[in-house]
Fold each of these.
Amino acid sequence: MASTISSALFSCTSPVTFNRKPKRGSVSVRAEGGINPQIRKEEAKVVDSVVVTELEKPLTAYCRCWRSATFPLCDGTHVKHNKATGDNVGPLLVKK
């Protein structure tokens, strides 16, 4: 089954394929296009690494929605994205 997803802030014109037999009532979605809208597009692959013992704060939030103005750190932009799209993405929390 293929579909097109769009909303005020997100648009996917490529077919979106849903898993025919989802496990435990979940739905698997495979994006055919870009996930990263604009962050470091000149790089072949965006990779960030941290040494946990060198973190300044006891808890650091890292972006997983690719929309943070402070990428790779989370700035809460996912909240607006989730409301607009019905998505449920949140940050990766790293504890020191």
Amino acid sequence: MLEPDKIDYRSSGRGVSLEVPPDLTQLPGQSRYVVPTTGVSATDYAAGQAAAQAATSTGTTATNQIADVRYEHAGDERWLSVDRPADKLWGPVRDFWLDNGFLMAVDQPTVGIMETDWAENRAKIPQDFIRSTIGKVFDSLYSTGQRDQFRTRLERNAKGGTNIYITHKGMEEVYTNNRKDSTIWQPRPRDPELEAEFLRRLMVKLGISQEQAKAQVAQAEQ
């Protein structure tokens, strides 16, 4: 499992939207790579957070449930099984991605699908002397050459609760010739460790303690 300090999508200095690799919108026949022109603004997010806090203070949002969220693992698939209906989970799951530094590219509760924008894991950039000295001013000059996107699917399960699946998609920038004067973006393999880590974090968002979440994931991944 990835260490928490190996994931950081929040420090890339984004405002309303993230700079998306240009040719992610030009992949023929691959609608899943199309980046929409709309997103969730910081103002809208702040308003939503205030509403969520107000709901919690009135007792309408259960945050202390520790036995109704379970981490499941079968083959190469991982998911959370939650004893709550999907309509009660949509808001917290959506807030979870916003809290982790993403904007929402797809937000469709009627079909149970949400998808983040493409974002960069800034924790992968080496923290050398130059970056640590001037990084706060010129941090945008540093790039990993990789972008990540996460698709979340909420499905009703046989017990009347909800299964939550998180699927990672990745792109990487590669040179097109030996002169290294031109690059393209191409898909890179899905990262199951990233999926597992975000499922673990989501467990905490839904009320499980850090220790319980780590224990459940470790046991399931054995």
Amino acid sequence: MILKIPQNSNFKLEIAKELLLLIEEAHKEFDRSQSDLDWKWETDRSPIDVGGKTYEIKLRFGFAEYFFTLGEILNTDINGLGDIGRKRVPFGFIAYDKDSNSVYVVFRGTMTPAEWITNAQFKPGCEPFLRENDLGKVHRGFHKIYTRKDIGPNLFKKKDDKPSIRECIENAIKGCPKHTIGLWPTEAIEKCPTEATVYTTGHSLGGALATLATLHIKEKINPFKPILYAFANPRAGGVDFSKRFEGLECFRIANSEDIVPTLPLASIDLASGSNDTTSKSLEKTNLPKLFSPKLFSSLLPELDYHHIGEPIYFTHHKGAIADNHIIPAYKEALGII
């Protein structure tokens, strides 16, 4: 398999390798949280060793695990879900490498190869990014994961509240004194150097969240202009949202045989201003008759979704839908042994 890197691209293979290994580390931290129930990951700031480098951990962030299924996230309003089976788990971290003066905002994705395909209905709602209309609209499920406080298992005990991922990222990059990360104790966090390079990255669902984090940092955490490397990510927002990324370096790495980057559907509006024979024949196609009413209605997005960033494609058919999507396929494409 060969990565298709456009001529004159600023895409850096070694950076992509480094970031994918950090994403894999975020997955390992999830595994540890499941096997080591005594691990206090929310307050653990121990450094990590990945790919021969040591990274300082500025902060780990998390969310409630009832959102593991990407299909459910794509199709569900988070406010409508209950606390059944709720358990807070790590979703990623903000790391710092002093030698390169680089900050890394890292998101893991869904944890089980088949989880994101268990629900085939992809009818996402949308809402303004960061509640600001001029930033464009984004997928409601992704947005709520990024911005909603974790209210804890008891609605009436504010001391159980945890900060949103958005707040964690702001605190980790801007810096904050002791005891101000949500409502749990922590040591003070130093502000990131203003000349630091900030990378945002994630795989699958994590790639969508990294996309949101990229614009959030650009718009709200001056003077940083983050660089996005998103792997196997679904579309996150509409055309107005995508326009706000102008001037940023953004790359989306995708397997052409992976179906997740094709979701949510960009559009199913068959009307065309073209006189092309194919487009006219498609307009006459009665799609509802080709699918069950439930399936067809489930495909209708509320937003024309757009990809973000320069496409970096490869083709690697592993023989199964899930295997075309998971991290090992992407490691092979990047030449990580």
